[in-house]
């Protein structure tokens, strides 16, 4: 259990240290807002936005002219790269080779459930992405869900922009919609695989990870094992408590600190029933 718990959170632990400056232990830190003219920004503006060396970014633009500056800067900003153009170059080359294979992926099975729901923006400017573990069918391999995530992100997010995500993980079963109870802790391989591919090929896109409603078991587990996690991960993850845990009828009201219900797409409002809008 402890190894699976750490593996799950390690999968989202690859943001750079400078991105977390000024954040609180509750995971409510501000993000650098999305730039309004992302696609038209030059290397100098992008390097300042991601706090990466301009010469390194310029060199990468020469080596990888097909990549927009923001995409190159995100790889430079990775914690494991720390602004080193040579290290970033190796990752970018692998990334581009990986992208070539996307078109060759088989079409997903018609009965593969899609656990992802895109919405509007969080209060800090990051994009809201709802993840519904209850919809995951473990009869399908994690690879299929990873491919679905990648395809969705490619449609929803421009490679040239600076958008980040707040991922909302709703642990509830949603029985009325035909989704049985599947506590998130029983879906390690699928969720961690999706988190890893998100961080590997969409670096510097994750702002925070919000898990709700977390009962006594989940809160206790997190307190027990958070000492094994990096400081950056602990800052980035927030568990919203509910006495009933995943049996709660509505999301915890603390979720309103993160989002405005007006930002929820109409087709997704059913998953937020009981969350009262701001007055």
UniProtKB/TrEMBL annotation:
- Which parts of the sequence belong to the CRAL-TRIO domain? 118-279
Q: Which Gene3D superfamilies match?
A: CRAL-TRIO lipid binding domain
Query: What InterPro entries is this protein classified in?
Result: CRAL-TRIO_dom, CRAL-TRIO_dom_sf
Q: What is this protein called?
A: ATPase N2B
Q: What is the lineage of its organism?
A: Eukaryota, Sar, Alveolata, Dinophyceae, Suessiales
């Amino acid at each position: 259990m402890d190894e699976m718990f750490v593996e799950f959170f390690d999968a989202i632990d690859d943001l750079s240290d400078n991105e977390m400056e000024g954040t609180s232990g509750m995971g409510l830190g501000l993000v650098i807002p999305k730039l309004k003219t992302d696609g038209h920004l030059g290397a100098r503006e992008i390097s300042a936005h991601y706090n990466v060396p301009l010469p390194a970014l310029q060199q990468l633009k020469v080596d990888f002219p097909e990549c927009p500056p923001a995409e190159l800067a995100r790889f430079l900003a990775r914690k494991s790269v720390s602004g080193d153009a040579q290290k970033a170059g190796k990752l970018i080359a692998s990334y581009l080779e990986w992208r070539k294979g996307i078109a060759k992926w088989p079409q997903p099975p018609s009965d593969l459930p899609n656990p992802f729901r895109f919405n509007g923006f969080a209060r800090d400017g990051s994009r809201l992405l709802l993840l519904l573990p209850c919809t995951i069918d473990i009869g399908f391999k994690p690879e299929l869900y990873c491919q679905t995530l990648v395809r969705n992100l490619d449609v929803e997010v421009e490679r040239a922009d600076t958008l980040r995500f707040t991922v909302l993980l709703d642990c509830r079963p949603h029985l009325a919609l035909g989704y049985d109870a599947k506590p998130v802790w029983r879906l390690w391989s699928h969720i961690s695989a999706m988190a890893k591919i998100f961080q590997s090929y969409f670096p510097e896109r994750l702002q925070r990870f919000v898990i709700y409603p977390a009962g006594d078991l989940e809160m206790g587990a997190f307190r027990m094992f958070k000492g094994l996690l990096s400081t950056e991960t602990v800052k980035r993850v927030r568990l919203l408590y509910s006495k009933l845990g995943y049996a709660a009828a509505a999301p915890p009201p603390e979720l309103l600190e993160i989002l405005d219900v007006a930002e929820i797409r109409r087709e997704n409002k059913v998953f937020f029933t009981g969350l009262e809008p701001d007055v």
